[in-house]
Amino acid sequence: MKILITGGAGFVGSHLADKLIEQGHEITVLDDLSTGRYSNVEHLEGHERFRLIIDTVLNQELMEELVRETDRVFHMASAVGVRLIMEQPVKTIETIFHGTDVVLKFCSRYRKRVLIPSTSEVYGKGAKVPFSEEDDLLTGATDKHRWAYACAKTLDEFLALAHFKETRLPVVVVRLFNTVGPRQTGQYGMVVPRFVHSAIKNEPLTVFGDGTQSRCFGHVHDVVEGLAKMLETPQCFGQVINLGNSEETTILGLAEKAIELTGSRSEIRYISYDEAYGDGFEDMRRRVPSLEKAGRA
């Protein structure tokens, strides 16, 4: 099959490209390299079943052509990471929602199967554990930039499911939890590569709060295997699906493991969420102590 991956030079997207190439498909990657990296897909250049186009999903003429000629679409292009969200909230909203709108419009027009990744962040302040796709969602005030990402992704989900309801577009929404593995960088605040990078350089590892908050980390190879199967499973169409690991690790334990495995002399430095980001991060965690047990990014 011919498969289009938007954002395919990103961390998860590039591993998905590897997986689909391995399965024998023809892959087109569209990426503007704003958060993706050419080095993630450089090893695929020259492969007879791989094509890289450096452009944006907001180029509607190009997107229509690419969607029309393909069989499956994985819309992996998105703003990523807490740091980018806090620093560039306008770009976060525009990149996420406008890009998804374009992709869904043309997938609907040409009746293409499409996967829309969402995020565990849409659960917001929900305290119920474990999370369920049927849970009510509760986010924070609109003057807190921290929630722009969650709300934009929530709107993506509404739009995707509206296409399914109106025209039975074969669309799947997948809420990703913490995904880690090769090619992930700490540039936008991802904790594992940030800890490892600091440990290798014997620099302090920054832990927010007291470090007892826990996360569930899923390996990217497991995640892309799940993603690849969903568009071939009609029962998934019109559904919202959680995809992640269930084994919890505390952030302090993760920092200690990074120091141990690298033989580092790094110390662990504790700072408050408000000190790092402001915008009510600490207040949100104080009022909903069980939030950290849900394995969110």
Describe this structure in words.
The strands form 3 sheets. This protein has a 7-stranded parallel beta sheet with strand order 3-2-1-4-5-6-10, sandwiched between helices. It is built from 10 helices and 12 strands. α2 (60-69) crosses α4 (89-110), α4 runs parallel beside α5 and α6 packs parallel to α8. It is globular. The protein has 297 residues and is of the alpha/beta class. The longest helix has 22 residues, at 89-110. The chain folds into 2 domains: 2-181 and 216-243, Rossmann fold; 191-213 and 248-294, UDP-galactose 4-epimerase, domain 1. Helices cover 38% and strands 19% of the residues.
Question: TL;DR of this structure?
Answer:
It is built from 10 helices and 12 strands.
CA-to-CA gap between the ends? 33 Å
Radius of gyration: 19 Å
Widest sheet, order of strands: 3-2-1-4-5-6-10
Q: Which class do the helix and strand fractions yield? A: alpha/beta
Features:
297 residues, alpha/beta, globular, UDP-galactose 4-epimerase, domain 1, seven-stranded parallel β-sheet, single chain
Q: What is the secondary structure topology, with strand pairs?
A:
Layout: E1 2-6, H1 11-22, E2 26-31, E3 50-54, H2 60-69, E4 72-75, H3 82-87, H4 89-110, E5 113-119, H5 148-167, E6 171-176, E7 178-180, H6 191-200, E8 205-208, E9 214-219, H7 220-230, E10 240-243, E11 248-250, H8 251-262, E12 268-271, H9 273-276, H10 281-287
Parallel strand pairs: 1-2, 1-4, 2-3, 4-5, 5-6, 6-10, 7-9, 8-12
Antiparallel strand pairs: 9-11
